[in-house]
Amino acid sequence: MMKLLYATVLALAALPASAAALAAPTVLTVEGGAIEGTYADGVRVFKGVPFAAPPVGPLRWQAPQPVAPWAGIRPAKAFGPRAMQLPLFSDMVFRSPGIDEDCLYLNVWTPPVTSEKKLPVLVYFHGGGLAAGDGSEPRYDGAAMARQGIVALTVNYRLGVFGFLAHPELSGESAAHASGNYGLMDQAAALRWVQRNIAAFGGDPAQVTIAGESAGSYSVSAQMVNRQARGLFARAIGESGSVLGLQPPSLAEAEQQGAAFATAAGAASLAELRALPAAQLLEVAGRPGMPKWSIVTDGVVIDRAPLESYRRGLQARVPLLAGWNSQEMHAGALLGQAPATKESFAAALEKLYGEQAADAARAYDYDVLDAARDLASDRWIVYGTWKWIDLHRRVAPTYRYYFTRPRPGADGGAVHSGEIEYALGNLDGNKVYRWSDDDRRVAATMQAYFANFIRSGNPNGAGLAHWPTVDHPAPNVMRIDVTSAAFNPRDRARFEFHDRQHNELHD
Hints:
By secondary structure, the chain is an alpha/beta fold.
């Protein structure tokens, strides 16, 4: 205790006298022991805080286990390792030291001064297709949200074959007779950690918002039907993606994939598979023809098809803010090298939909370039996001956005992931683009909407255009750009077409 007090005094002594009177400590006690963070960019930062035991050795492909206590004060001044992954996405910039199976760490940014009022909490899950990404990426940095009076966290979770492998022997050794979804279990474990520890950072465990983009948004929608996460959050934000856009394999199907992977890795048993070096498993998983590891309908974490859960209203009934960008996928993804003409679009529809091509043409009967872009986006990620919003609006307040601001110098609309820096207030963390005053105005607007929602479950606030819930009469979708306003997108026919396609395939 004296060491803790001494370290706190030293930290405060380094601040200006006026700040020291109000400054919160950089040494805190959490599960496992004491940690020491820093003051950086006007906020307190705690990096690389373990929320579960390293999932290595016999804990590989096991549910996350409690942190082992440590002695003394553990430094929390550097990001922990990121999860095992291949270099898949060129836009990812990491501040973590490298990849490692020992990856279950989170990062916390808090306001620099103490407050008698408990603060709202944001827990952000990174994107990357459940195969890549990291909580250290500058675009997810929590400092800007901390300056808004929010305790912000980013969370690492197991990815790819390490996070989502199912296998008959894994199911056999499990008390629940299931396997897979270890990455989702990691996220739920982090949320339980938040419930038990966030008060030490000034946060309110009753005011937790979970959020994420792309695979992070898929994760948010999955945690809303994960019984392990029930009651651990009060609000949810999804940016471009939901589990309703997937058809998660059954446990039996996923076990077959896992058994085939073990054979490809040269392992005749689970024990042999666990004994293989992590780098070797990653190499095998990256070979052509290997499965794309993802969420599994395992009967436990995901206890039934997510679409069924949402149709029955079984998800967490919390306020939801969700939406997508104007160019999640480009028209060329649908048309290939063909020019954007009515003839090339009709040919693409015929190839994709056959006898239903005429129905598709009616649903996308507008400018060919826009229609091709929208259809490519809808088929990939937009339809699933819309379906999430459309089903959830029946049980809780739901707000939908449409982000249209292109990055500086970009042609077309707002690309996939292009909203993250705006929403989280992190334009300056991305050095690739020359941000303009208009970009900063868009960022101020979007971050304000997000911060208001994190505080109250309602994005509206002073100085902002009114944002209705989606169950109000149109216009009720918030277009976010230099001038933001609610509008009526008139896009339901598109999504009802995909509903029919989805039902024919999966019902």
